[in-house]
Amino acid sequence: MQTIKRTFEALQHEKGSPERIRLNLSWVTSEYLPSIKYGIIEDDGTETCWNYKTKRECEEKIQQITDRRKGA
Fold first, then answer.
1. What share of the chain is helix, strand, coil (3-state, %, to 5)?
2. CA 55, chain centre distance (Å)
3. What pTM was computed for the model?
């Protein structure tokens, strides 16, 4: 698992364009919820959690998830 910073890449494309619509399907590249800056992505690329305003918050959640998976 790793912390990933959102790119908001959808904003770089014209409103209503197929590319902007496609990019808005992923929380990493979506233009929505700009106050949410970080998320968690699994090692296989699966987008897991995305509602963290700070990197530290996100990293703490990763630690909790990791501990839970290990049975700690």
1. 35, 20, 45
2. 11
3. 0.77
